[in-house]
Amino acid sequence: MIEILDPGPLTTVQDLGRPGLAHLGVPPSGAADTLALEVGNRLVGNRRDAAALEATLIGPRLRFERAATIALTGACEPRRITVAAGEELRVGPCFSGARVYVCVRGGIDVPEVLGSCSTDLLTGIGPAPLRAGDRVAIGPEPAGDLEDVSTRLLHDGPLRVVPGPRDDWFADGALDTLCRGAWSVSTRANRIGVWLDGPALERARTDELESEGLVTGALQVPSGGKPILLLNDHPTTGGYPVIAVVHSNDLPRAGQLRTGDTVSFRLYP
Amino acid sequence: MNARRAGDRGWLLEADVPLDVAAAVRVSFGNRVEEVVPGHATVLVVGDISAGELLAVEAPPSSRATGRMVEIPVTYDGTDLAEVASLTGLGVDEVIAIHSGTTYTAAFLGFLPGFAYLVGLDERLLVPRRPQPRTSVAGGTVAIAGPYSGIYPRESPGGWRLLGTTDAALFDETRQQPNLIAAADSVRFVPL
Questions:
Q1: Range of the domain at B134
Q2: What ipTM was predicted for this assembly?
Q3: I need a surface site. Which of A87, A104, A257, B104 has the fewest CB within 10 A?
Q4: Which of A116, A169, A236 to mutate to test the interface with B (most CBs of B within 10 A)?
Q5: Is A159-267 CATH 3.30.70.100?
Q6: Domain count, chain B
Q7: Looking at the DSSP assignment, which residues form a beta bridge with residue A3?
Q8: B102 and B154 share a domain?
Q9: In chain B, whose CA is at the least distance from the CA of A162?
């Protein structure tokens, strides 16, 4: 077992989520930085979709009741460490990026809900965010060997966006505006979405859009013109037009955006 | 039909009958689709499928979306009954009789797990959303707004007009089929 001594601002259990249920109104959820989850799981020899702890801005303080091999990835230098029985681990603050992953050999073993261990903050599906005093189980020893995964370099280039599906609802030049400047991440940034601040994206059509399906990475633009970059716990449908969608390969970086960051976009292809 | 790009792995199909298109896409592509999400006038498809393949899908009669009949017992005690009556020029009894005298169809689900957008609302009950949404609407609240009727599956913010309450469990993740109402189901409200 692992005892949570201090979860920090927000620590949840995350795996690869529950895709495939959007038609029931169930968000995909899952790790916001799937690449970090995968790297961490490989470092400790887990299946790549094993559940881990996802901590936000400041990592948790944990006590391991038995010896364990763990990996820290995401908003920190990826590294593998071993902890002894009874040892306390203080993960510490994220210096670059918003989320750090604590992957434990064997995975975090909590009951699945609708096929996933992930906490969904929009709907409350899955385990509640961890609180001080909670204890979570470590799963059985996996068959896989520890893998030495080379350090991931976070490249700082613009996030690539595919225009649409509703780019034609915006004034000429709105896509250029989106891709020209640097956007700042406002104080509202969570697993549901990242509210961006910058020049307003002008609409060409002001009529109401009827509700339609949304994908993770969508840049949804409410009437004020400031886009919201939707992350994993986003609502499955919405009625604000989506001007462009972040490329799936760049979503792990989107999942690391934090308040005060700047982010820019470029058209793909 | 028209296909709009929805990221590198998705397409948003504009469709006259989204439910039929959604059913046909599932039949045609099986495991190749990750998500098929009907909306009001669209179907979002996520998976490694080209627009050409999607646009070639014809909805065969066998894939026509059909559903079950779901009856929802309702206590018509909603906060907004009197307001809806005054907005529509009807009496409260008439509002209840009209709302419960209609068979609805679940057009699509969204907003919250288990929230079905029910179409078929009698035109006499067309009222806009509240100008300011409430910060909290109780789970099990039966409400209307625009062309829709719906039931809040759990406590949440909401801007619809509240007509009544039900004990029906709209979403229970421990059930084999977690949602009580599926797209294409028929729904009737039975006054208690």
A1: 69-191
A2: 0.95
A3: A87
A4: A236
A5: no
A6: 2
A7: A63, A135
A8: yes
A9: B7
